[in-house]
Sequence to fold (304 residues):
Amino acid sequence: MSEKKESVRRPPRRMQLAAQNRSPVLLPEAADDAGPRVRVGVLALIWQSWAIFFSHLDIFLMLMWRPFALTAAVALGVVEALPHIGPGPAAMLFTVVGMSAIVPVVTAWHRMILLGADNPDARVTYRIGKPEWTYFRAAAALYGLGYVIGLAVNELYGPLLGGPVLWLVREGIDPAGLLSAWGPAAIQWGSVALILGFLVARFFLVLPAAAVGAPMSVSESASATRGNGLRLVAAYILASLPAAALTAVFAQPAAVLASAAPAEEMFLDLILAILPRILLYTIAVGILSLAFERLVGVPKRLRR
Fold:
């Protein structure tokens, strides 16, 4: 078969940033396969993920109006129910419903990037089907694992990670009091970010695979990303900085609901709290999709 037929057909023009005309890199038959590996470019992934977001902003808004309306309704509901259930359960309910509502947006975004915005098989619409349920289960398992690991890192932080900082402070090496003020928190959150980032980098390719209906195991994801873990971690962190900065500006839902602000102000603050997180997840989804396209490839049955 000719090289032209073997290559992946070019997607629509405005999707050229998302997928180039190349043959897919198939997963090795065994995890210890020592064949040549594709190396992803950190800056290329970041640039392309943001470029895809801005060039397809119309699709993003089309996908988001339903979950946004649902999130607004839930925000109004938890504010009204706050005196009866308390801020903790109210914040949990708002976060779980809000994040669950965007799963169809995330799966559609994966398919748009990998299959093409104008490809009928991509189903770039807000829908709930088998891929969405598969994606939801896989994401819940992986994020649950990440939560447990994050707790473990926090517990180990004191004796294992905070020791060097405390030693430097005791020795008088603490310029302008920065180490004592910010050192422990920086090491703690930096360690959590690196460990969880590595978990995302190595195992989360199962999510775009689920979105396009090509199930992948965690071990296959780890095999496909071997040699690219640090590159993917760097891409996730750097690409997420603008959205993370916006997230830091607005209060967390739990803090909003625990405040003594009027109900109308709480409602607005809840909406403002969720929007940067949606942007953060959208950019991360772009990184995952682009990494999947480069390291695994789009299944032949789904190519146009």
The two ends are 17 Å apart (CA to CA).
